[in-house]
Design goal:
about 280 residues, 9-stranded mixed β-sheet, about 25% helix
Length: about 280
């Protein structure tokens, strides 16, 4: 009976050890202590879970995603117009990404040229000129001159010469490279024009249209001179396909070239033999 009395007491000690997570030192038959018996608590027990460390407010979280950089500001895009667009087009022409213009209008050809330039340099190919694209283009090109910007015409006309303010006049300014068609001081139309080189200069002075030839062919230079309106010897105002293609990169043999065929066709229909022609600086 005494042996049975000690067993419940031993079990009570063992239970306390299990609950408290302690190590029990049992004895063998010879009364000597045996190796410790370790009781492991179940892994799902709240006491056995490893607590998460409290966040350190001074520690930088390198695992968080980086904030996306803002896209560079767009300076010009399709549909924009103006002097800045002309400069963009002139610079694109310098590095052979654009062959037409400058026109001052951000058209489809300009958008295509910008896309090509961006793709070649690993930039996003949006076709819109943002600040990064513009700075890269500026670094590769020179500042365009005035006639680079207006290579194909479109420049503003100079003030008319006083001799142009009366009657029906073809008023031609060499400084602004423009022709005003004027009637009694009022400008009816303005056209970009090109003149002769220093070897074949266009004569200055006051003249009159003495002959019109709709489909004229020059036997001297073996070239076509459509809508020719002769005013001084062999010099005439006429359409030039070379001017239309190359702009101010070329020159005439002394005539006043017009590059807009539709515009000179309309002018030819209005001008009469005997109308005045004033050519001035």
């Amino acid at each position: 009976m005494r042996g049975t009395g000690r067993r419940p007491a031993a079990l009570l000690v063992l239970a306390v050890a299990v609950v408290c997570g302690c190590t029990v030192q049992p004895t063998g038959p010879d009364g000597k202590p045996r190796g410790p018996i370790r009781f492991e608590l179940p892994s799902h027990s709240p006491a056995a879970r490893t607590p998460h460390p409290a966040p350190d407010p001074g520690r930088r979280d390198t695992g968080s995603p980086r904030r996306a950089e803002p896209a560079p500001a767009v300076l010009w895009s399709p549909g924009d117009t103006g002097r800045d667009v002309r400069e963009l087009q002139a610079r694109l022409r310098q590095i052979a990404w654009l062959y037409d213009g400058p026109t001052g209008t951000y058209d489809e050809l300009t958008e295509r040229a910008v896309r090509g330039f961006q793709g070649k340099r690993g930039l996003p190919t949006t076709g819109r000129t943002d600040r990064v694209t513009w700075e890269r283009l500026r670094a590769m090109t020179r500042e365009p001159g005035y006639w680079d910007l207006y290579l194909m015409g479109g420049q503003p006309a100079a003030a008319p010469n006083p001799r142009c303010l009366t009657g029906r006049v073809l008023c031609v300014s060499k400084t602004s490279r423009t022709l005003r068609w004027m009637i009694d001081g009022r400008t009816v139309a303005t056209l970009a024009v090109r003149f002769g080189s220093r070897y074949t200069p266009t004569r200055d002075g006051v003249f009159e249209v003495y002959w019109k030839s709709r489909d004229h062919w020059s036997t001297l230079y073996d070239t076509s001179m459509p809508y020719a309106m002769f005013f001084s010897g062999g010099q005439a105002v006429h359409f030039s396909s070379d001017f239309a293609a190359r702009g101010y990169a070329g020159a005439s043999h002394g005539c006043v070239n017009v590059r807009d065929e539709a515009a000179i066709a309309g002018l030819y229909a209005q001008v009469r033999t005997g109308d005045k022609v004033v050519v001035y600086q």
